[in-house]
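Journal club prep — side note

Before the paper discussion, L.F. wants everyone to see what a predicted structure for a comparable chain looks like in token form. Sequence:
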Amino acid sequence: MSTAQADQPRTGRDDTRFFGQPWALTHIFGVEMWERFSFYGMQGILLIYMYYSVTDGGLGMDRGIATGIVGAYGGTVYLSSILGAWAADRLLGSERVLFYSAWVIMAGHIALALLPSVWGLGIGLVLVAIGSGGLKANATAVVGTLYAAGDIRRDAGFSLFYLGINLGAFLGPLITGLLQDSIGFHWGFGAAAVGMALGLLQYSIGRRQLPESSRIVANPLPANRRPLVLGIAVLVVIALAALVLTGVIRADNLAGVVILVTLGAAISYFAVIISSRELNRDERSRVIGFIPLFVVNVGFWSLYQQQFTVLTIYSDERLNRTIFGWEMPVSWVNSINPIFVIILSGVFAAIWSKLGNRAPSAPAKFSLGAIIMGAAFLLFLPWANGAPNSSPLIAIVVILLVFTVAELFISPPGLSVTTKLAPERFHTQMVALYFLSVALGTAIAGWLAQFYDPSNEVPYFLILGAIAIGMGVVLLLVSRPVLALMKGVR
């Protein structure tokens, strides 16, 4: 009997070799962990690299422009998931797009590490954004192929997958921040490139063990239409270059441009999917039921992603980072949230597995996630308007614990419910639509940062916290009609 034949009985619900989940999950877990190591490691030092002075190793940018670029870059990462999803559904399949995207990401980190000045920043961020977009949507889609319809392990599996994401997110800022603080920014970016290389090595060894369904091209593009698509892609690149060269797209309006493009893309995506004749009545209803979840998710991420804009500035200027006479690197604050995710994701996975069909519905989880996120912003108020370096480190630790609880209510269940609601013909593209909500929220987080004033923080934290709580309460009140639209999906 061959090895492949021996492994055949260990599939589906019978395969519980990875903490009760299919063994193939380890391969996606690993590549996503190293990708997040590189992504968050780079992002942990990105903002301060842009606004630190040249003598301190930075680029000396205006801080408001720098936060807008970070938000726009983060939004573009998720916006690029459209391209990755389309390539998977029409050209290559999710697994292959994931693999090729990892190579693009590594090239981006190498550019940041080796190329000087703004050119290195621009080339590196474009490559990382495109590659990460392709990897993110398709890694999630591949995880979905490991579970049969109705497999109650799905939510727990996504929580375990989320553990891999946050293990990388925890280690990345620690390593890159230490290198940046001791020998320079470009060494930190180089460490991110090494991390992605390790992820590629691990995934290259294990990718053949993934199910064949992960390589299926759901809606193949006819060969006679490929030249047209290539021509459109070339025209888009030329148009973008022209807009940049003529000053229509500038560093100071980049976040606003990404917000408008993402909003337009989301509306168009919903319209295309809902109007498709290939959907039956239940599939169309489920996509419509996803809309309120999409809106609340945008609100959640517009606050949560301020860890890389407002919280970075707060940590640099307002936070007392001195521990027994040693000053902790700014980027290490970005490792606090992943620690809590690592600790609590297993707890949440166990709770959802234990509750099974009695667990709160997706609308209820989204509601609670938004409400708790709003409460986290209100927790900044006791230390608002303080002197430089006056906020105690324990305060940020507690606030980020609340961030984490909110995240675990909304993010892993969000990925899971998206794969459940997705029509068969639009499976990967529905995952991309979920990431569009994250893109929009991330870009908004960068745009909002320009209104943050360390000398007058109360209005900022109070208003944003109240809006998030209000969105969560409204979704909770309409959860029954939303569930009715979801047609049996919880």
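L.F.'s comment for the group: The mean pLDDT is 84. Keep this in mind when we get to the figures.
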